[in-house]
């Protein structure tokens, strides 16, 4: 599903314009997405109605945080009158743009806006943004810490669960803002002219087909991040592209931005501008600001406190973007060394009787789970499965068969993942469990000294949990809290 570029309003709604206006926020969200927006709107004097299909119990923590604000909540349903009576409607990224009430607003010429679009319109500072199918969060946080070490006023936000809209009035023109942007947010951004000054694409693989319809539409949404900025910073705009991803690399053709790459090299370092990781694990920079032709590696093997070669690639991408922003190579290196693993991303949470337990709940795509298995296998007991986004599991099944000792499957996609594993060689034990409690206990019973129990679901969480954080937190509590009774399960 591709939204036409005129779907959202192109007008700039300044804070003073919203005072006394009726504003409806459609979708409070289960990841805090609507909280920052609602707080900013109230502070600006708008009369705010928040409407969400989820009920009060499911939205409990967010509602508690907004409890003292003058907000009218309509929960468990959407009402037509809350839209027709609005001066502007803000739509949460998770709300399908084909939703009848969204279409009704468009047909009635009621302005439709998004939090991220409004931030881009209002933000006077320079924006660096990260997107991709996998590795976005780690790369964004790495880039944010590298930038903040050189530019202390740097802000970090976007698709990380933290809104920056309430801070937009304090941002100066020479400040940097580092954002993680999802395909949903980028698809919406197509309605306006501004783009990030520094745009980094980690990789591309099939994802969110339940929303975008086709891989081509999903890819087109991601590519929006590379369009010309048209914001006064055009002369300093960069595209930082994964040189190891064929499709992403091809996007360099015809760009008005300067282009740099990141990725792995063979024994010969490419001459193309970028940051290249050698087989030994050093990251060599070429053609980036502050880098001399004979400069030593920006990063050396062992600098990172992160598992997996894929995380070294993530760091190379962040470092290339940071150098393009004007961060010094010594600062980049120091920030990389100090960086701590992102919660829920290949996080070692417990060791018991010689078994390590890893929380990788943020792995919501097959490719992310594959990276985790490549880093931790072959003695992995994998817990996987969840909400069905329409992604294929063929390659995941083959990697599980090769890099795991057993698989414990949960959620709506359990059957599809089981079929993919069963079609691969060698054969490994496959268990189906109804709950995360039973899955953890099953994995615990299968694991022995030297094994690693890995929660890396390869799927979204929404069929069984509030969000991926809820899923990871529950896994962590169960692992650290001891054994639970095993319910009925099946083995194939």
Notable characteristics:
alpha/beta; disordered N terminus; 18 helices; Protein-Tyrosine Phosphatase, Chain A; Rossmann fold; 492 residues; UDP-N-acetylmuramoyl-L-alanine:D-glutamate ligase; globular; seven-stranded mixed β-sheet; 33% helix
Task: Describe the protein in words.
The chain has 3 domains: 15-113, NAD(P)-binding Rossmann-like Domain (Rossmann fold), CATH 3.40.50.720; 120-338, Mur-like, catalytic domain (UDP-N-acetylmuramoyl-L-alanine:D-glutamate ligase, 3-Layer(aba) Sandwich), CATH 3.40.1190.10; 347-491, Mur ligase, C-terminal domain (Protein-Tyrosine Phosphatase, Chain A). It is 33% helix and 19% strand. The chain contains 18 helices and 20 strands. The strands form 3 sheets. An 8-stranded mixed sheet has the order 7-8-6-9-10-11-12-13. Strands 14-15-19-16-17-18-20 form a 7-stranded mixed sheet, with helices on both faces. It has a 5-stranded parallel sheet with strand order 3-2-1-4-5. Helix 3 links the parallel strand 2 (47-52) and strand 3 (71-75). Helix 8 (183-189) packs across helix 10, helix 14 packs parallel to helix 15 and helix 15 packs across helix 16 (414-422). The longest helix is centred in the middle third of the chain and has 17 residues, at 309-325. The radius of gyration is 23 Å and the shape is globular. The two termini are 37 Å apart.
Summary?
The chain is an alpha/beta fold and 492 residues long. It has 18 helices and 20 strands.
């Amino acid at each position: 599903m591709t939204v036409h570029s005129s779907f959202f309003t192109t007008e700039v709604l300044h804070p003073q314009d919203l005072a006394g206006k009726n504003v409806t926020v459609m979708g409070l969200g289960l990841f805090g997405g609507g909280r920052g927006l609602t707080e900013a709107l109230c502070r600006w004097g708008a009369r705010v109605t928040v409407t969400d299909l989820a009920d009060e119990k499911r939205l409990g923590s967010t509602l508690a945080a907004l409890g003292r604000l003058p907000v009218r909540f309509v929960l468990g349903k959407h009402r037509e009158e809350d839209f027709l009576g609005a001066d502007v409607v803000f739509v949460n990224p998770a709300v399908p743009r084909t939703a009848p009430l969204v279409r009704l607003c468009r047909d009635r010429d009621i302005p439709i806006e998004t939090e991220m679009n409004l931030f881009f319109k209002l933000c006077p500072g320079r924006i660096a943004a990260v997107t991709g199918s996998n590795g976005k969060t780690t790369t964004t946080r790495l880039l944010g810490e590298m930038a903040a070490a050189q530019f202390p006023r740097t802000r970090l936000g976007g698709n990380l669960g933290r809104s920056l809209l309430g801070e937009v009035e304090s941002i100066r023109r020479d400040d940097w803002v580092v954002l993680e942007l999802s395909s949903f947010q980028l698809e919406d951004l197509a309605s306006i002219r501004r783009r990030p000054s520094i745009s980094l694409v980690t990789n591309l693989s099939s994802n969110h087909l339940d929303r975008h319809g086709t891989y081509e539409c999903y890819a087109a949404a991601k590519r929006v991040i590379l369009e010309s900025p048209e914001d006064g910073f055009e002369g300093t705009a960069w595209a930082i592209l994964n040189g190891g991803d064929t499709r992403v690399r091809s996007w360099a053709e015809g760009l008005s931005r300067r282009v740099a790459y990141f990725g792995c090299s063979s024994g010969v370092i490419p001459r193309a501008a970028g940051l290249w990781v050698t087989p030994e694990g050093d990251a060599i920079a070429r053609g980036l600001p502050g880098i001399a032709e004979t400069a030593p590696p920006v990063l050396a093997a062992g600098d990172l406190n992160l598992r997996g070669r894929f995380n070294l690639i993530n760091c190379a991408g962040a470092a290339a973007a940071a150098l393009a922003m004007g961060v010094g190579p010594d600062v980049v290196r120091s920030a990389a060394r100090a960086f701590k693993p992102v919660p829920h991303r290949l996080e070692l949470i417990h060791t018991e009787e010689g078994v390590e337990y890893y929380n990788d709940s943020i792995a919501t795509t097959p490719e992310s789970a594959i990276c985790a298995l490549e880093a931790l296998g072959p003695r992995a007991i994998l817990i996987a499965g969840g909400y069905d986004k329409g992604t294929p599991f063929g390659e995941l099944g083959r990697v599980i068969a090769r890099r795991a000792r057993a698989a414990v499957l949960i959620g709506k996609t359990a059957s599809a993942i089981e079929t993919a594993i069963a079609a691969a060689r060698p054969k490994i034990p496959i268990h189906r469990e109804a709950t995360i409690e039973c899955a953890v206990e099953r994995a615990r019973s299968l694991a022995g000294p030297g094994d690693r129990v890995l929660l890396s679901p390869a799927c979204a969480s929404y069929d069984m949990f509030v969000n991926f954080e809820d899923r990871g937190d529950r896994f962590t509590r169960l692992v650290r809290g001891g054994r639970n009774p095993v319910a009925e399960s099946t083995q194939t």
